[in-house]
Write a structure and sequence with these properties.
Blueprint: E1 6-11, E2 14-19, E3 25-26, E4 38-43, E5 49-54, E6 57-62, E7 67-73, E8 79-82, E9 88-92, E10 108-112, E11 118-122, E12 133-134, E13 140-145, E14 148-153, E15 162-164, E16 171-176, E17 181-187, E18 195-201, E19 212-216, E20 221-226, E21 232-238, E22 252-258, E23 263-265, E24 274-279, E25 286-290, E26 295-300, E27 306-313, E28 317-320, E29 326-330, E30 338-343, E31 348-354, E32 360-363, E33 369-374, E34 384-389, E35 394-399, E36 403-408, E37 464-465, H1 473-498, H2 518-542, H3 549-556, H4 558-569
Antiparallel strand pairs: 1-2, 1-36, 2-3, 4-5, 5-6, 6-7, 8-9, 9-10, 10-11, 12-13, 13-14, 14-15, 16-17, 17-18, 18-19, 20-21, 21-22, 22-23, 24-25, 25-26, 26-27, 27-37, 28-29, 29-30, 30-31, 32-33, 33-34, 34-35
Helix pairs in contact: 2-3, 2-4
């Protein structure tokens, strides 16, 4: 029997844990938290722990037995994040000052997951960029301090080992490969000066040691998207204002940077905002949804070349399943909630469904099911969650009076095998909610006449394999250079074949003999040159070419040159 994956539900009545597919119900081992003040829930990356923050109480739970590991009082945590190996829990609470502590007190805390022990407290006033960054092996712990990035090693949080302070850093990201750690930093530009993104190999942080450097003018903020192998990163740069007036949300652009030093701008085939960017968990391709509605979705390879077009439609979100063989495209927010699922291997659409009023979506760790929810305070009515099969079949539905958050219990990558995509029909339950009619209104006078089919937009495009010519701007530039060079070579070869043979040079028939005397031989060679020139003038005269007076006088002086040559050769 398939393993049932639990998920946690946080609402106005507290927190409870329910069972996911195939058996839906409550987890009896977990005692529900009945409180209206629960602010956050979070699962560790391997699913071993769950943390909840309610009022001034922080709790850690083991998910195998659903027993609490530790209860921490006196904290007002608003955000919870686990370290990559699930050994530490990080919390952030609003920064406060008091009469007793006018300088404030630490508001960013690190706890050991095994017993809830407080390891270290930091002060981080701003909610922006509060989350510390770890390397995947938890050897490196780093955080932004003012405009510097500080690094600790081996979970020793007392001694700063390295610091990036030669640049003003606005944001950064860290990622690991099998053999090394890499850090990419965003350095904002001044007035009239470009911003920079510099990629470093830890711990070589001098400007001349950067593995790659990318400059751009439109970058008030930068989002980082690393592939799963840690070899390439996509930078989504955004300006607060679009001076062209085309977008209310500012201007965006995508840049590609690799640890091998390669950088380039990702060229998009349609103008408009960039809604979503996501890497395949396999790490060899990524998807972008962009352009004015209907938005376009394209899949790119590691050379930033389009390899598949998923057409256009009402979508603004991308979600790969954990195994990377199914891609979900959704249209949420101001869109009606259309969901499409695609078989990435076969480049074929699997199914569709209508998840209207969706404010959050998350794939189940088994890679076969996904959860959609309508949550407050985004929407105050119609709160609840639904669980779907990848084919678009509705498997489970639950209404919640006031829902804030729903999270799957996470699992290790090796827990579930990659699902085999099947075309067999999956039975769907009937939804409880009244569905809006999809029939267009027709006045009484037109109801007995054939319908007219038309598109609201004239730029709808179907899914298709990318053409060979659909390559990046840089690759296209290099290709044009190669083609131009080849054309020049072919033209030169053609000219060599078609042109008349080069005429032989006209020289005098007089033979000279060198004497071995340097001075005499020099004069003999000089005379030979003059005789050759005279021979050419004589040929021009015979051809009817008019000569100048000085050229005729040279021809008349030929006999004198011959006499002088004879005297020198004696």
């Amino acid at each position: 029997m398939a393993t049932s994956i639990p998920f946690a539900v946080r609402g106005s009545t507290g927190v409870h844990v329910a069972q996911g597919p195939p058996a839906f119900g409550t987890v009896d081992q977990f005692v529900p938290i009945d409180t209206k003040s629960c602010r956050a829930i979070c699962f560790s990356p391997n699913g071993q722990y769950m943390a909840t923050a309610s009022g001034q109480t922080l709790k850690l739970w083991r998910t195998d037995t659903w027993t609490d590991v530790a209860t921490i009082e006196g904290t007002k945590a608003y955000f919870l994040v686990f370290s990559p190996l699930s050994r530490y829990l990080m919390t952030w609470e609003p920064y406060e000052v008091s009469k007793d502590k006018p300088q404030g007190s630490p508001n960013l805390h690190l706890y050991k997951c095994e017993n809830g022990e407080l390891v270290k407290g930091f002060m981080h006033k701003s909610q922006t960029n509060w989350e510390p960054k770890w390397s995947d092996d938890e050897k490196i712990f780093s955080k932004l301090q003012n405009n510097d990035v500080i690094f600790y090693e081996d979970c020793n949080f007392e001694n700063i080992i390295y610091r990036i302070n030669c640049f003003k850093v606005a944001s950064y990201s860290i990622c690991s490969t099998q053999n090394a750690h890499h850090v990419i930093c965003h350095m904002p530009g001044g007035k009239g000066q470009p911003a920079f993104a510099r990629l470093f190999a830890y711990p070589k942080f001098e400007a001349q040691q950067a593995l790659a450097c990318k400059s751009f003018f439109n970058a008030d903020s930068v989002e980082y998207f690393w592939n799963s192998k840690g070899t390439h990163c996509i930078l989504l740069t955004t300006t607060e204002q679009d001076k062209t007036g085309k977008s209310y949300y500012g201007k965006q652009s995508l840049h590609f940077i690799g640890i091998n030093g390669s950088t380039n701008v990702i060229t998009l085939a349609k103008e408009g905002p960039i809604y979503s960017v996501a890497w395949s968990p396999k790490g060899h391709e990524f998807c972008v949804v962009y352009g004015f509605m209907p938005a376009k979705a394209s899949i790119f390879n590691l050379k930033s070349e389009v390899i598949f077009e998923l057409g256009t439609g009402p979508r603004n979100a991308i979600y790969y399943n954990p195994h990377g063989n199914i891609l979900l495209l959704g249209g949420f927010g101001n869109l009606r909630g259309n969901v499409e699922t695609w078989d990435i291997v076969k480049r074929k659409q699997i199914g569709t469904c209508d998840a209207s009023d969706t404010t959050m979506l998350e794939w189940c760790p088994d890679g076969m099911h996904f959860l959609t929810a309508t949550t407050a305070p985004r929407l105050r009515i119609g709160n609840g969650y639904k669980i779907w099969h990848y084919s678009g079949a509705l498997m489970h539905e639950k209404d919640v009076e006031e829902l804030y958050e729903v999270r799957w219990k996470r699992a290790d990558k090796t827990t579930f095998k990659e699902p085999v995509i099947s075309t067999d029909k999956v039975e769907s339950i009937a939804t409880k909610k009244v569905q809006a009619s999809t029939q267009a209104y027709r006045p009484p006078s037109a109801r007995n006449r054939p319908g007219v089919i038309f598109n609201l937009h004239d730029d709808h495009e179907p899914a298709k394999q990318a053409k060979e010519s659909a390559v990046s701007k840089n690759a296209l530039k290099q290709r044009k250079k190669r083609e131009a060079k080849k054309a020049r070579k072919d033209e030169e070869k053609t000219d060599d074949k078609t042109e008349d043979p080069k005429p032989q040079a006209i020289i005098s028939s007089v033979q000279v003999v060198l004497t071995g005397d340097v001075e005499k031989d020099k004069k003999i060679k000089n005379i030979k040159k003059k005789l050759d020139a005279i021979e050419k003038l004589k040929a021009d005269k015979a051809a009817g070419k008019p000569l100048e007076i000085n050229q005729l006088s040279k021809i008349n002086g030929e006999s004198d040159l011959l006499k002088e040559l004879k005297q020198l050769q004696i």
